[in-house]
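Input record (one chain):
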Amino acid sequence: MDNSRAFAATLVGAVVGGVAGYLFFTDHGRSIRRQIEPALDDFTQELMSFRATVQKASGVASEGWKLLNDALGDAESGPKYPGRQTSPF
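The corresponding structure, as predicted from the sequence alone:
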C-alpha cells in the first residue's frame, strides 16, 4: 500500500515538474503560458467577485435570521449555534 502511494506521488510529481519545465523553459511553452495568463487573471477576478457576492448574501441571510429571531422573541435565549454565531449562515 505504501509503495503504491509513493509511486503515485512520484509519478504526479514528475508530471507536474515536466509540465512546469515545459511552460517555463521552452519557447513554445512560454508562448502558451502568455496566452493562458490573461484568462487566468479573468478567472481570478470572477472568483473574487463571486466571493464578495457570497459574503454579501451571507450578511443578508444573517440579518434576516436576526430580525426573525427578534420578531419571534427568541433573542433573549442567546445564540443557538457554537461560538458567537447567531444563525446557520
